[in-house]
Specification:
Residues 8-120 form the Acyl-CoA dehydrogenase/oxidase N-terminal domain. With 381 residues, the chain is an alpha+beta fold. The protein is 52% helix and 15% strand. The protein starts with 7 loop residues before the first helix and ends with a helix. The model has no long low-confidence stretch (mean pLDDT 96). The structure holds flavin-adenine dinucleotide.
C-alpha cells in the first residue's frame, strides 16, 4: 500500500538541508551566482557531508541503502532553495551514480562511487547532437575499437556543466552502419583527455549551469572507459531514465512550490485600490490553481517514487510525473509573473529567474510531447 508518511529520519534530513542551504547558499548567493553565471560546485562536499549522495547506494559501495522516496524528497527540498543545487544533486546521483551502479564495471564502481558519495566527482551527460535531440537514437558520434581501447570522434551539443566536469558520460555509435537504438555504447571519459574541445553556448536561463558544444577529435580512451556492454548503451540509458524523470519532476516541484510561496507572500503585502491584491478573487483563484497543480504533480511524483522504491514497472508514471511537474512549473511561474507584474519583471526578483529557468524542463530529458507519446503508447495507442 502506498504510504505518504515521511519517516522521522527523513524529516530530520530535510531540516539539515534547510540549515545547510541557509548557511552555504542563501537566496542572495543564488541571485549573485545567477547574475555572474557561476556554478556553486562548492555545495557538493557539503551535500556529501550530509550523506545526501550516499542515499540510494548499497552499503557495500559506501551507501546508506535507502530508497528513491528519500532521494525525491531531498531533490525537492534542495530545489525549493535553489534549482541548481537540485540539478547538481540529481546529476551526481542519477546520471553519474545510478549509471555506474546499474551498468558500470566493478572497477568503475570501486574507483568512483566512494568519491561520488563524498561529493568529490563532477559528471556531465553527453548525449545530444545537433541532429539528435528528442530523437536521441539519431546520434552519429562514433567510437572505433583499437588494440587496447577506443577512439572517439564527433560532436555533442548543449551539454550542461561539461567544462567543469571530471567525467563525461558519452553516448557513441560503436557499430558502424547501425541505426537508432542499436549499436550505441556509453563511455566514461575523463574531461582532460586530449582531443576534447569546448565552446560555450549563450542562452535564456539556467545561468548557473553553463551549456557547452563539445568536439571529440581522435579522443583515445582505454578499454576501461566502456560502461556496460558494447552496443547496449541505449538499453542501459533507458534502464536509468525513470531516475532522471523522477529527478526532473522533484526539481520542478520544489521550485514551483517556492514560486507559489513567494506569490502568496507578495499578494498579502502588495496594496492596490486600498487593499492587498490577495483579497481580489481574480488573484486568489490564480493562486489556488497554482497550489492545486503543485499538489497534484507532487502526488504523481510520490506514486512514482514508491513504484521505483518497490521495483515495480513505472514507464507511464515516470512520464506522467515528469510531464505534470514540468508543465506545472511553467504554469506557476507564468502566473507568478502576472501577479507580481513589474515586481516580477525586475531582474532583482526571484520569480523572473524561475520563469526563465522553467522553459527548459518541458523539453529537456524527454519533451512534453515525448512524454505524451509514451503515455499514449502505454494506453495501447
Ligand atoms: C539548457 C540546456 C541544457 C541541456 N543539457 C543537456 C545535457 O546535459 N546533456 C544532453 O545530452 N543534452 C542536454 N540538452 C539537450 C536537450 O536534451 C535537448 O534540447 C532536448 O532533447 C530536445 O532536443 P532539441 O532541442 O533538438 O529539440 P527537437 O528534438 O528538435 O524538438 C523540437 C520540438 O519537436 C517536438 N518533437 C520532436 N519529436 C517529436 C515526436 N516524435 N512527436 C511529437 N513531438 C516531437 C519536441 O517535443 C519539441 O517540441 C540541454 C538543452 C538545453 C537547452
Amino acid at each position: 500500500m502506498i504510504d505518504f508518511e515521511i519517516p522521522e529520519e527523513d524529516r530530520a534530513l530535510l531540516d539539515s538541508i534547510d540549515r545547510m542551504m541557509a548557511r552555504e547558499f542563501p537566496p542572495e548567493a543564488l541571485r549573485e551566482a545567477d547574475e555572474r553565471h557561476e556554478t556553486p560546485w562548492r555545495l557538493l562536499p557539503f551535500m556529501g557531508r550530509l550523506g545526501l549522495f550516499a542515499i540510494p547506494f548499497p552499503e557495500e559501495w559506501g551507501g546508506l541503502g535507502k530508497d528513491w522516496r528519500t532521494v525525491a524528497l531531498v531533490n525537492e527540498r534542495l530545489a525549493y532553495h535553489a534549482g541548481i543545487a537540485a540539478t547538481l544533486f540529481g546529476t551526481t546521483v542519477g546520471f553519474g551514480g545510478m549509471s555506474l551502479l546499474k551498468y558500470g564495471t566493478d572497477e568503475q564502481k570501486r574507483d568512483l562511487l566512494p568519491r561520488l558519495i563524498r561529493g568529490e566527482v563532477r559528471f556531465a551527460l553527453a548525449l545530444t547532437e545537433s541532429q539528435a535531440g528528442t530523437d536521441a537514437g539519431a546520434i552519429i558520434a562514433s567510437a572505433r575499437r583499437t588494440g587496447s581501447g577506443w577512439v572517439i570522434n564527433g560532436r555533442k551539443t548543449w551539454i550542461s556543466n561539461a567544462d567543469a566536469a571530471d567525467y563525461l558520460v558519452v553516448a557513441c555509435r560503436t557499430e558502424p552502419g547501425s541505426k537508432g537504438a542499436k549499436g550505441v555504447s556509453m563511455f566514461l571519459v575523463d574531461r582532460g583527455t586530449p582531443g576534447i574541445s569546448m565552446t560555450q553556448l549563450a542562452k535564456v536561463g539556467h545561468n548557473c549551469m553553463p551549456s557547452w558544444d563539445i568536439g571529440f577529435d581522435e579522443v583515445e580512451v582505454s578499454g576501461k572507459a566502456l560502461m556496460g556492454v558494447a552496443g547496449e548503451g541505449f538499453k542501459h540509458t533507458m534502464s536509468t531514465l525513470h531516475y532522471s524523470r523522477a529527478g526532473q519532476a522533484a526539481n520542478a516541484i520544489g521550485q514551483a512550490q517556492k514560486a507559489v510561496d513567494l506569490v502568496v507572500a507578495y499578494a498579502k503585502e502588495r496594496m492596490q485600490f486600498g487593499k492587498p491584491i490577495g483579497s481580489f478573487q481574480a488573484i486568489q483563484h490564480k493562486i489556488a490553481d497554482m497550489q492545486l497543480r503543485v499538489n497534484l504533480a507532487r502526488l504523481a511524483l510520490r506514486e512514482l517514487s514508491w513504484l521505483i522504491a518497490t521495483e515495480r514497472p513505472c514507464r507511464l508514471e515516470a512520464a506522467q510525473a515528469k510531464l505534470a511537474a514540468t508543465e506545472t512549473f511553467q504554469f506557476v511561474t507564468r502566473n507568478g509573473m502576472q501577479i507580481m507584474a513589474s515586481a516580477g519583471y525586475s531582474m532583482e526578483s526571484d520569480m523572473q529567474r524561475m520563469w526563465r529557468d522553467a522553459g527548459l524542463y518541458t523539453f529537456g530529458e524527454g519533451s512534453s510531447e515525448l512524454q505524451r507519446n509514451l503515455i499514449a503508447r502505454e494506453l495501447g495507442l
